[in-house]
Structure prediction request, 148 residues.
Amino acid sequence: MKKETPLNIEDLKRMANNQNSWRERLSAVNELKEYDCQQSRDILARLAIHDIVFTVKEAAFMATQALGVTKGGQPIYLGKKPKGNLVDGINKKLTRVRDSLPDGYSLDDFKAAFQKLYPAAYDAYEGDKKGQFDKWLSNVIPSLPKKK
Prediction:
C-alpha cells in the first residue's frame, strides 16, 4: 500500500461518482484501495456506506476495513444485502419503457430502451442481479400493469 495520493485521483473521483457504471465504480475502488491518503479514504468510505450496488459497496467496505477507516469515530458496518427495490418507482419506470416499445418487442429491445431511458436504474439492477438480470426482467415485465 502506498502512502501517497494517486496521480490520477481526479479520474478516480470521476469513476467513483459515475452512477451509470457500477463496473467503473468497482474499478475505482480496486485502484483506490492501493493508496492510503485522505482522498481515497473519503471516497472509499462514501462508497462503502452509500453505493446502491452491493458488489461495489462490499468491495469498498473491505478496502475501508483494510485501511482502518471510521465514520465519526465509529467503525463502518456493511450489513446485509438489501431486499426489495433498489430504485424508487422502478415498476413505473419499467412500465414506461414497455409502453415506449412497439408490440412484439424482444428482451434485448427492452433492455436497450431501459438503458437509454434510465441508465442509472439499469446499471443498479444489472449490477445487483449480475447473471440473473435477464431472468429478473423476464419475470418482472409480465407482472407490470397492463397497457391502457
Remarks:
- The chain has two domains: 9-75, 90-143.
- The chain has a mean pLDDT of 94.
